[in-house]
Amino acid sequence: MKNNSKFLFGMLVFAAVLGSLPFLIKSEYFFFAAYSVLQFVILATAWNILGGYAGYVNFGSAAFFAIGAYATVAGFKLQLPQGVNILLGTFIAGLVGLGMGYLTLRLKGVFFSIATLALSVVLLTIVINTPFLGGARGVYVIVPRESPIGVGQYIHWLYFLILGMAILSVIVARYIQHSSLGQGLMAIRDDELAAEGLGVPTLRLKLYATTISGAMMGLAGTTFPYLITYMEPTAAFNLSFAVNSIAMPIVGGLGSWLGPLIGALLLGSIQQVASVTLSSTWNLLIVGGMLVFFVTLAPNGIMGIFKKKN
C-alpha cells in the first residue's frame, strides 16, 4: 500500500511537471521531440510486457504501431472523431495481437521472433496494395493549427494526448508486474515447462500478454498521423520503432516496469539531441552502440547496475 502511494505520488508529480511545459516553453520543436520520447515510452513499456516479463522477443513492434496509425487514417477518411480513432486503433491492434498469439505462441525462441517479423512484412504489403489507406504514395491527414481545447497549438494537444497515454501505459505495466498475470509470465520466462508442471496456464497468460502488448503498441501509433500529417508506409513501418522498442527495455533493464521507462527517456532524449546537433541518421547507430554495450557489459541494464551498487 505504501509503495502504491509513492508510485501514484510520483506519477502525479511527473504528470504535473510535464503537463505544465506547454505553458512555459514556446518552442514547437521541443514538443515534437517530447512527443517522440513519450511515444517510445509507450512502445518500450508495451514490448516489455511480452519480451521482458515472459521472455518472448517480438520483432513486430512496427506492425502494431502501424495498425494504430492506419486505423486512424481509415477513421480520418470516414470522418470519425479523434477519440473513436484512438479506441479503434487500440482495439484492432489488440485483436491482431491475440490472433498473432494463437498462431505463433507455440513456437519457441528465434522461430517466434521470425514469425512476428513476418507479420510486419505481411501488413506492409497489405497497406501498399490498399488504395483506401493511401497505398505506397501515402495520404494526407489534415489537422487544424489550433488546439481543440483552446490552449496553444495543435502540437500541444498531441503532446497532452501522448503524455496521458504514456502515463496510462506505465500504470498498466506496473499493475501487471505485481499481479498474478505478471508472476505467471515471469515463471514462463524462467522455465516454461516447470511453470506448466506447476499448473500455470501458460498459453492463456501469453495470449493475455500479446493482446495487451499489441493494444498498447497500437495506442502509440493512433496519434502519429496527426503529428506528421502525411502518412506513408515507410513512416509507419519504420525500422526505428522495432529497434528502439527492443533496445530501450534492454538498456533500462528487462522485466521491470521502471526499466523501459528509464531506457526510453534516456535513449529517446539522446536521439533527439543527436538529431539537432548532428543528424537523425546517427540515431540508429547510437541505439546500436548502446545496445551492444549493455548486452555485453551490463546485461541487466541500468536497473541492474543500481541494484549491484545497493
Task: Provide structural commentary.
- The chain is globular and about 55 Å long.
- It is built from 15 helices and 2 strands.
- Helix 1 (2-24) runs antiparallel to helix 6, helix 2 packs across helix 12 (239-252) and helix 12 runs parallel beside helix 15 (301-309).
- It has helices at 2-24, 28-51, 61-77, 82-104, 109-128, 154-177, 180-190, 192-197, 202-221, 224-228, 233-236, 239-252, 258-277, 283-297, 301-309; strands spanning 139-140, 230-231.
- By secondary structure, it is mainly α.
- The mean pLDDT is 88.
Summarize, please.
This protein has helices spanning 2-24, 28-51, 61-77, 82-104, 109-128, 154-177, 180-190, 192-197, 202-221, 224-228, 233-236, 239-252, 258-277, 283-297, 301-309; strands at residues 139-140, 230-231. The chain is mostly helical and 310 residues long. The chain is globular and about 55 Å long.
Helix content: over 70%
Radius of gyration: 19 Å
Q: Please, how many helices?
A: 15
Largest sheet: 2 strands, antiparallel
SSE sequence, one letter per element: HHHHHEHHHHHEHHHHH
Q: What best-fitting shape do the alpha-carbon axes yield?
A: globular
Global structural class: mainly alpha
The largest sheet has its strands arranged as 1-2
Topology summary:
Elements: H1 2-24, H2 28-51, H3 61-77, H4 82-104, H5 109-128, E1 139-140, H6 154-177, H7 180-190, H8 192-197, H9 202-221, H10 224-228, E2 230-231, H11 233-236, H12 239-252, H13 258-277, H14 283-297, H15 301-309
Antiparallel strand pairs: 1-2
Helix pairs in contact: 1-6, 2-6, 2-9, 2-12, 2-13, 3-4, 3-5, 3-9, 4-9, 7-9, 12-13, 12-14, 12-15, 13-14
